[in-house]
Each structure stands twice: as structure tokens, then as C-alpha cells.
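Our collaborator T.R. sent over the components below with a one-line note: 'Predict the complex.' Nothing else. No constraints on interfaces, no templates requested, no preferences about which chain binds where. So this is a plain run: every listed entity goes in together, and whatever single assembly comes back becomes the starting point for the next discussion.
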Amino acid sequence: MTADVLIVGTGLIGTSLALALEGQVDVALHDRDPGALAVALGRGAGRAWDQHEPARHAVLALPLSAIAPTFVVLHERGVAETWSHVASTQSAVQRDIETCAGDASVLCGSHPMAGSERNGPDAASATLFAGRPWVLCPSPTTSASALRATRRLAKLAGADPVELPAAQHDLAVALVSHLPQVAASALAAVVLAEGRKNPASLDLSGPGLQDSTRIAASDPALWTEILGHNARAVAPLVRALADELHRAAGVLDGLAAGTPAAAGTAEALTSGLRALLVSGNEGRRLVPVKHGEHDSAFAVVRVAVPDRPGQLAGVFVAAAEAGINVEDVRVEHLAGRPRGVIELLVPPSESRQAAAALTAAGWDVVG
Amino acid sequence: MTADVLIVGTGLIGTSLALALEGQVDVALHDRDPGALAVALGRGAGRAWDQHEPARHAVLALPLSAIAPTFVVLHERGVAETWSHVASTQSAVQRDIETCAGDASVLCGSHPMAGSERNGPDAASATLFAGRPWVLCPSPTTSASALRATRRLAKLAGADPVELPAAQHDLAVALVSHLPQVAASALAAVVLAEGRKNPASLDLSGPGLQDSTRIAASDPALWTEILGHNARAVAPLVRALADELHRAAGVLDGLAAGTPAAAGTAEALTSGLRALLVSGNEGRRLVPVKHGEHDSAFAVVRVAVPDRPGQLAGVFVAAAEAGINVEDVRVEHLAGRPRGVIELLVPPSESRQAAAALTAAGWDVVG
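Returned assembly:
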């Protein structure tokens, strides 16, 4: 028997892919950790691979450093006709594979833009890839059949295949994913150093610090590997951010030292600060918030509620009954405050109606 | 007639304070912008001040640079017995007041730790301060009666008065509020510069970039003033963050240039990267997420839903019916994905029950 697809590695991505393919093609699964394999099989993700059976296409859903060595061994054994991997950085992995395997024309690198801060088959979901970009990164030697098989896989998983050269993919993820990770970790590292000196400071913290350090909780082992593999693309961005902050520190130092005699200088320094904040506004407007739309595409309706069970449900029921299309929700809880503010993002054309309907239903709409 | 409290400035903070004091003490309101005053009065926040009537206590809820000049003029006219302001930075304002007024013993600086990215009386709420810290920053010359009146005001507003020297307050807000603002603005400025070169990169962005740039949308005029006034405390923190990022950029440069011959060096570099990520984990754990609790105090239940109206309401109704205590919610919308993942934060002891109840109610619990 020949499997349609062999998935090697039953972590979050491998298991989700198997679940997404279920019922469409015949999927064999393998993981060198029998426990992880058992969890994936228990979730109904394909059948166990007997380590001999050939496959039309094999996907290496493995940690970055395991991809090239695993490919060399299994390809040597003629396990599959075409191959792909799902690495979160592409150029370095491609280089490794070409170094180790010589000819790697049967393989196409790819990267589904979906994930979770949770890992492992437990966190897998059949719909993880639905509607998300799945970047295909053929190398100059990748065969047409390997590219075709990888594109088909992405489509079967419900994703949107996008072809990008490996170098361009790596630049893009360096900006939208790796730079924010380094920034959040560095900010949290400063919080650690300063918070140890003045622990009481953190009692005054609010949603700004919470949001900007959220991804600092990510797995250090995973991220050390990702950043190391994409170092060439990430380094200049981290340096650009550091330079921007050094300039800001210089401006702030100047303002701190300022005397009335240096009023002209103070004005120039203040302009520097304002320019940074204005650039920040403009940069933020480039970030897609939902479905490729941006902040300005939504209006915010704020409802103050006592901070106790059932309030969130109450607001949503009132909104649903009024036919309001709630696009997103943010809950602001502040340390020690016995109430919260629920922010509902709605289409601007519906915001007046939403505020009126919630007020009529007895909720405290605060603006 | 003598007003109990005169509030000068009917922006978000002044109007919210008036609403919070309503029914407890007699409040007179003033704003040099008649439009803003009218909105505040229209919301039921006290009565208009006739500009002659004296007050027991006056609160200056004004932009930072307007506090000292306004105090000098009104104090000269003997308007109030004691005074306070609600400035978001304290030392510079205190210095300005002492420079302009000579004796400022009738005044106590203070800072309610509450706000919104929205400004103006429209966004005001009677419960804005409830349960939040309200920092009192008496100077060495502040009289006991001015401190007492300011503390009473904070309590009447439902806040928790905390006494801190101005310098210590400024260090704390520099860390928990001003540094994250500069970091987010600088990150978004890099996104702007790079996004202009490669606009397609941003199509691949996800929740990490969204969260870490959210506050980059803040008002540049307001923040230029805040950062300028607290420059002395903010500058070293911004420099520490820049240094941390420069070190990271150096490590990444080293890894990008690395050759197999330099394997020992590569190991040292990788350790540097891992150390940063681990410090980030530890720093994040210091950040209170809700009621002074931290990330680890909650378990996450993830529900995948089709991304269409009514789904959020449905999940909350199911949770409420099962008696689940949903502490917080995050909605992950990814560009182009026709579904979303709703993350419910629940007490760890309730997470199994919550997952089971939602599954039983037909929802797709994904981990």
C-alpha cells in the first residue's frame, strides 16, 4: 500500500495538518516519540506509519534543526516521491538540505502562517490553516512536481498558497513575527531588572504593559532556534529598533538636562519625540487587525460592568438580540478595580445603534 | 455659597471625577472651553462655576503645562483653601509650581492610575477610578490639610490612595507606562520604514505584531508632553532597552556570520539569545494581568468558531449556563481566516469542566 501523504512529526502543525486532511486523502503519521504519536492518533489524525510503506508525498513537520538530517535518511530510503517541510524560516533550512543531500529537487520548502503559543498534538485543530496564507518557497532546483504536490497539500488544508522566494519569506517573518518577539522579550527583560529594584512600581501597571509583553511568555528553546536560523534577516531589524530607541534616549536625555536658556534646542528635541510618536501612529495603521482591515475600520463601544461572572455573557446576549455585529472584543481589567470595561469593536455604521441598544438594555455605555 | 470641590478642566479625568463625586459632595465645574464644559454638564457632572464662588478644595485636571500657570492665577485670587492636581508626571510639575508660586504648601500633587486611550468628557465614567490606585505625591512643603483633602477626594472617587514621593512615582510610571509607549512607537516606526519597502510582508502578520503595536496609536501631542515632563526617569529605561536590543543585534549578526569552524562561538551566541528569551519569560511573570494576579493564575480554554455574527454571544451563553467563571476573553482573528479562535481565561480548577461543558454544548474546543 502507498500512503497519499506521510506526515513526519506530530506536534501542533503535523497533527493539525493530519486532522485537516482527514477524509480527503489517506494519511500516515510518524513521530519518534511514541507518546506524541499516540495522542495524535487518539485525536483521529490518520493512521500510524509502519516505517516501510512508501508515500506519494511526505511532509517534515519537525524542529528546524531536525529537518535536513531526517530528509537525508528517509529520502535515501526512497520513502516518498515528493517532499515538503513546514519550517518557520526557510533560507537556512534550504541551505542545510542542499549541503546534506546534494540534490534536493524533490523537496519544496513551505510555511503555513498559523500557529499558537501552545505546542503539541493536544493543541491541534483541523481548522488551524483555514483561510491563512501558506507560503511556498521553492528553491531554484525544486521540481515542478514537488511544488505542485506542496501547493495541493496547502489547498487541501484549507489554506491560501502564496509563492515567495525563501529570502523574501524570511524578511517578511523577520518583520512581522521575529522582531516583535525580540522587542517583547527585551522589554520584559528591562521590566525584570527594574522590577527587582522597585517591585512596587509594577502595582501601577495597566493594559499597555500587559499587551506589549504578552508574547514575552513564548518558549525560549523554540525561539532560540527560530531566531538563530533567521539571524541574517532579523539582525538589521533589531538594530534599526535599537537605533530608534537610542535616538529617543538621546532626545530624552537632552530634555532632562534642558535649561530655559536652551529653549530652541528643547523645541528641536520635542519635535524629535513627536516625530517618533507620529511615525508610530503611521506604522500602526499599516498593521492589519482583522481580515486585512485596520484599526480605523472599526468603531469602539465601551461598556462598564461590575467585574463578576456572567457580565460578559450579558453584554453579548444584549448585543446579539439587537442584531449588532460584534467584530471583536477586548476586556480591560485593571489591578484592584472591582469592575471592567468591555470594548466591543463594531462597524462604524452600527456604533450609534449599538450604544443605544445596549443603553436601552440597561448597560452602562461609557463612550 | 462655597463649593465643596471645584474641578478645573472637564476632560476625561475632570469629568469622570465630577461624575464619581456626584451625590456625595457639591461640585462646581470649569473649563475655558465652553463646549467641553457644556458636554460635561450635559452628562450630569456637577454645576457650572461662576468664576467667583470660593471652594474648599480645587482640583486642576489640566494638561501638564497648564497646571502651574493656572494655579498661580487662581491661588492669587484666593479661590480655594486647598488644591490638588492629577498630573501623570509629578516632579517636573511640582518644580514648575514651586518656581512660579513660591509657596505651594496648599497644594498636593496626585495621579489617579486610570485612563483611556480616548480623551474628553464624552469618554468619562463615574466608575473610572473605582478600586484603582490614586497616587498622592505631597512635596516636603505640602500642608497636612492639603494632603488630607486630596486623600479624601481619592476615597470619594472610589480609588485607593497610595502615598509616594514624586520621584518614586515618576520612576514607576516611567517603567510601566512611558517605556512601553516609546517601545511600541519605535517598533511601529520600524514597521513603517520596512513596510514601505515591502508592503506584502505585512500580509503575513498575526496577533503578536497586533498586540505589541496597539498603543502606538496613542495621541502624539499628549505623549510628547508626558515624555518631555518625565524625561529624566524615562531616558535611562529607554537606553537600557536600546542596549538590550543592540546586544541582541550583535548576537544575531554573529550567528548570521557563523561558520562551522566557530561552533564554540555559535554556542556562546545562542546562549546569549536564550538568556534574553528566559529573562523575557521572567519579566512577563512580574506583570500583573488582572487584580494583581499573573498569567499563571489562569487556564486558557480555546474555542474555534466560524467568524460570523453571534458566535461570541453563543460561546458566552454556553459558558454562563454551565456556571463557568470567565475571567477574561481574547479573540484571535487572523487576516483572511474565515474563523476565529476565542480564548477564555478561567480559573485553573474550572478549566476541565469548562472544556467539557462547551464541548457538550456543541462548540469546537481546540485545546
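Summary for T.R.: Chain B touches chain A through 138 residues (CB under 8 Å).
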